[in-house]
Amino acid sequence: MTQIEALKRKIDSLYEERRESRDEWADWLHKNHIFIVAEIAHDLAKRYDANDDLAIAAAMLHDIADAVMSRFAPDHEKTSAEIGRKLLQETGFTEEEIRIVMDDAIRYHSCRNGEVPKTTEGKVMATADALAHLQTDFYAHAVESKRDKQSIEEIKDWGLAKIDRDFKNKILFPEIQKEAESSYERQKSFFINLT
Ligand SMILES: [Fe+2]
Ligand SMILES: [Fe+2]
Question: How do the pLDDT tens digits run along the chain, 195 residues long?
């Protein structure tokens, strides 16, 4: 078994334990998002000459605390970092590799406040996450799960801000940004026309 296969098994078993503390959305993300980000990261790693295993590991571990707690829990980020580091150690990644995955790629994957990853692996992962958001039914699903909790106006504000961050801040390769333009425009009209 490769290190990546071993890591995937550990992530799957973390999600297999049922937990009340987890958001409903987390199980959807486990089945429909995390491994798609990993596939896109794999393609981008080849294209931009990043270390494939590290880009994939970062993709699979981004927001891993979703498996055990709500995304909005105050210690979500800290817990993600702890679980990620532990799983990487258990699957034999070196300290230097763990630093790239955890302290750069995952730490800065949200690309907030002008902070972006510095390593190619980190750039690949943030870009892959944004592409997965813009090019799958991620937003369609998010809207459906928010409908009973938030008003249409709140959902629109959330979605329009998030697709903007995906397209403008998280896609860190100009070529890829060009390629994603039509997906971004499609998501934008999806939110503008939401009723
Ligand atoms: Fe995230
Ligand atoms: Fe994501």
Answer: 999 999 999 999 999 987 888 988 899 999 999 999 999 999 999 999 999 999 999 999 999 999 999 998 999 999 999 999 999 999 999 999 999 999 999 999 999 999 999 999 999 999 999 999 999 999 999 999 999 999 999 999 999 999 999 999 999 999 999 999 999 999 999 999 999
Q: Which positions ≥6 away from 156 have C-beta within 8 Å?
A: 191, 192, 194
> With 0-12 CB in 10 A as exposed, 13-18 as middle and 19+ as buried, what is 82?
middle
- Nearest ligand to residue 128 Cα: 2
Amino acid at 51: N
Residue 111: nearest ligand to its CA?
1
Amino acid at 9: R
Q: How far is the CA of 92 from the centre of ligand 1 (A)?
A: 24
